[in-house]
């Protein structure tokens, strides 16, 4: 129990969003879209993250996202933890692409090692307990700042909203719909920050 099979991103134009996701990242049925006109202003409280093996693969995926219509929020660069960058899809979803490696070990590939849904929450310990009560298993936890759950095909993490926004290079301010639905076997509910599960 507590597996996330896919996420559904709510968009104004489903055909355009499907074309973007196929061209940019090729994630198949792990990322779905459905039509919605739900209002949202500013940061939607989450990012999607793709973890790959090396910087060349980061650059390749960011390049294909830009070719498909994304805009750069943070150019790919080395950091203390590795190499990565951030883009925003035409539908507004923020995507980070990162590698823990700072050096290439071979030619770029489109292989994605893991897909991570990063939720920005108001109270990490309270949200952690909420998810534990709903059957999710903790993989890593760093006090009251960060939690990673073992949720299968898509990893779920919790971090403070401001920290997720800072990593994405955007203001943490935002209101309205998250325009995201988490598809898993934990049941149908909304978490303390309003993220919906189906």
TrEMBL record:
InterPro entries: Glyas_Bleomycin-R_OHBP_Dase. It comes from the Bacteria. This is Glyoxalase-like domain-containing protein.
């Amino acid at each position: 129990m507590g597996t996330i099979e896919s996420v559904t991103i709510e968009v104004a134009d489903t055909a355009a969003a499907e074309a973007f996701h196929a061209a940019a990242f090729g994630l198949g049925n792990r990322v779905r879209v459905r039509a919605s006109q739900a209002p949202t202003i500013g940061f939607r409280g989450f990012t999607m993250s793709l973890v790959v093996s090396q910087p060349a693969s980061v650059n390749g995926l960011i390049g294909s996202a830009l070719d498909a219509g994304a805009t750069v929020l943070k150019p790919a660069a080395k950091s203390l933890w590795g190499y990565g960058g951030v883009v925003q899809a035409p539908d507004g979803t923020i995507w980070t692409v990162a590698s823990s490696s700072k050096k290439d070990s071979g030619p770029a590939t489109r292989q994605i090692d893991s897909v991570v849904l990063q939720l920005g929450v108001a109270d990490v310990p309270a949200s952690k307990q909420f998810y534990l009560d709903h059957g999710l298993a903790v993989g890593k936890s760093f006090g009251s700042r960060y939690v990673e759950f073992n949720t299968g095909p898509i990893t779920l993490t919790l971090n403070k909203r401001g920290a997720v926004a800072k990593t994405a290079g955007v203001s943490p301010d935002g209101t309205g719909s998250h325009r995201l639905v988490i598809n898993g076997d934990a049941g149908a509910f909304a978490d303390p920050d309003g993220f919906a599960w189906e």
